[in-house]
Structure formats: structure tokens, C-alpha cells
Design brief:
The protein has a two-stranded antiparallel ribbon. The mean pLDDT is about 95. A hairpin with a 5-residue loop joins strand 1 and strand 2. The protein is built from 13 helices and two strands. The chain has two domains: about 110 residues; about 130 residues, Arc Repressor Mutant, subunit A (Orthogonal Bundle), CATH 1.10.10. The chain is mostly helical. The N and C termini lie far apart (about 50 Å).
Length: about 280
Amino acid sequence: MTSQTPINIYQYDDFRVYLRDRFAAQRAADPACTHRAFAKSAGISNPGFLNDVIKGRRTLSAAATDKVIKGFGLSPVEAEYFRLLVEYGQCKNETKRDTLYRQICSRRNRSSFTKLNPALSKYYQDYRYPLIRNAIMAFDFRGNYEELGRFVRPCMPSAEVRKCVRELCEWGLVSQRPDGRYVVTGEYVEPSPTLNEQIRRLNRDWIDQAMDALMTLPPQKRHVSSRLLSVSPAVAKKIGEKIERFRDEIWEMVQDDPEDPSCIMQLNIQYFPRSRGREKA
């Protein structure tokens, strides 16, 4: 059931999302491409197998993974990347998941997808890129890498700062004016909907750094507060909606700031359940 599709496997970090999009693209190109036809070409007896995997109702064993690879006609390098996605997606051990994710990023960074879309692939992969980009907005940077490295928290070695600045310039996110000052351009990297794990991991890094701020910064330089709330489903929903409005209001304040920025502040918002659902009597 092999067919050429515009779907690039390297822009995915969730194997179920990849399978969903890959099958949809092949079906759009060839109406004869059905779940039954795929199962037959892959050597799978259950015609609903692929749909069950996509919906999360089934896991993929090594043997089943090989059959899916055969059904889609993946190349050897695509097959190896797909196996990594499957192992990562089904792994429960966080240490092992971190190792697998580094392997996924390493393979993606060597792919044609990254060569054509370096910013999309790498910008949200490392918290230092957004940090340095924001620092350039608040710091008169003219190539003094050591000073810029000391300006940010946590401090960064000048070699790392130089690398970040060089790549941000290559991606068109930062440019150097004739007077020598580096400035942020109007370009923006929209997070890819197929790289959700990348954003989750970036948020985790930022939350970890918020914990460091709690222990290292004096109270007058930070605001950290937590509270447990016992609420009804209706009020829980209203709070979530109010948080969204608050976030939009903060962003508008930043956009409308009449003065030039001179510092970077990190705003974290966490709101999540601390109990399981309870059935009504």
C-alpha cells in the first residue's frame, strides 16, 4: 500500500499522530486506501487494527511495528525513526524516555526536515534559544557574548551564547543593525502541532527553573504562590477560562508597554487537578 505522500515523519514526535496523518494523506491520494486494504498489505488479520492503534486502544509490539512499517512502505531510515517513536511513546520509565527523546532529536536534527526547517525543529527544543532571543530585546547587545551570558538566569558560557545568537540570525529571528546592535526581527516560530512533546519538555524545563528561582531569589524579586481549591466542575471550568483571559491581558500589557524592555521575567501558570474524578451517588 505504498504511496508518495507529503507527510515527513521527522516532523512528528508522537507515533499515533504520525499514523493518523500518514493514513489520512494516503487515503486522500487514493480512495482505495482503506483500513481493510492497509491491514491486508501489512499482513494484519484485523481490519480495524490501525484505527485502534491511532485511537490509543492498542499498543504496538515489535512484530506489529514491523508490519506497520511494511504496510506504509517506510524506508530503512524512516523505519528506524518510527521504531524510536513507538518505543518512546510506550515507555513508562522517565530516565529511559529522556534517553530515547535525545535519540529522536539527534536523528531529526540530521534529517532533511531540519535542514529545510531548522527553526521549527530546534527553537523549542532548547530553552536557551527563547531565553537569548528575549534577552536581546532587553539588552544592548553588540557582540559582547560574555556580558549577555551574565545577563540571563541561569548564566550561560559565552560559547553557548555565541552559538545561540548565530543560529537565531541564521533562522531570521535576530538580525544585526548597521550600528552593530542585534535586534529581534518580526519573525515568529509557531510551535508545530505535530511536535507537542517538544513543547511539553520545554515547559518542564521552565517549571524546573521556577523551582530554582524559589530557592535562590529573595522574595522581593519573585512571586510564587500555591493554593489547593475544592471546587465544583462548573467553577473549575470558570477558573480555567479566567486564567486564559488573564494570560491574554498580560500579553496585551507587554505588547502595549510604552518603554523599552530592560529585563526578562518568566511567568508560569499551572492549574491542574489534584484528585481523581468521583462519580455522583
